[in-house]
């Protein structure tokens, strides 16, 4: 592989890391060709891009970014590495890894970056699955903020109906 080809791979990876704020680094060593093909098929079905890349290329691509990825250097970027990207759903790769591990425990999560927060180790898989996206968090906050306002409005509306009923009853009593 020429220096230009290596540079092109690093540049492509750096652009992916920059444009997609979440990615997963996995290890699939020891898997047969059929098992890797099964993994790739499942990734394709879910819209997940999966690439096996040399650790040095990943490391150099991450060095071009503003975020500090040095915690990945010793533990995550060792052995054979594959990178998973999903443009819309930050949980999709974690869910796929967990599901795939039910039938094949050779696939391991080495690390992940979710909105530039680093998660290192296979024990982080359940945490990654339970993380809420920015949109979900914003929705939760809006719901919490609207809740008291809705209570006040409903109390005023129901109270207004009661008040009108009371006034009507009192006016009927005066007439009688």
TrEMBL record:
GO biological process: translation
Source taxon at top rank: Bacteria
Pfam families named in the record: Ribosomal_L10
UniProt KW keywords: Ribonucleoprotein, Ribosomal protein, RNA-binding, rRNA-binding
PROSITE patterns xref list: RIBOSOMAL_L10
Recorded GO MF terms: large ribosomal subunit rRNA binding; structural constituent of ribosome
Function of the molecule: Forms part of the ribosomal stalk, playing a central role in the interaction of the ribosome with GTP-bound translation factors.
Family to which the UniProt record says this protein belongs: Belongs to the universal ribosomal protein uL10 family.
HAMAP family, alphabetized: Ribosomal_uL10
Name of this chain's protein: Large ribosomal subunit protein uL10
Origin organism lineage: Bacteria, Pseudomonadati, Bacteroidota, Cytophagia, Cytophagales
């Amino acid at each position: 592989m020429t220096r230009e080809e290596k540079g092109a791979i690093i540049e492509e990876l750096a652009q992916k890391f920059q444009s997609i704020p979440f990615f997963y680094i996995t290890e699939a060593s020891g898997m047969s060709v059929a098992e890797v093909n099964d993994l790739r098929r499942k990734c394709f079905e879910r819209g997940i891009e999966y690439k096996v890349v040399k650790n040095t290329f990943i490391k150099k691509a991450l060095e071009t970014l503003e975020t500090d990825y040095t915690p990945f250097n010793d533990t995550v970027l060792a052995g054979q590495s594959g990178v998973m990207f999903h443009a819309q759903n930050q949980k999709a790769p974690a869910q796929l890894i967990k599901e795939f591990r039910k039938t094949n425990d050779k696939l391991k999560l080495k690390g992940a970056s979710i909105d530039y927060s680093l998660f290192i180790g296979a024990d982080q898989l359940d945490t990654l699955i339970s993380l809420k996206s920015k949109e979900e968090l914003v929705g939760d906050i809006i719901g919490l903020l609207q809740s008291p306002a809705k209570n006040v409005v409903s109390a005023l509306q129901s109270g207004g109906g009661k008040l009108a009923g009371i006034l009507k009853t009192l006016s009927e009593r005066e007439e009688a």
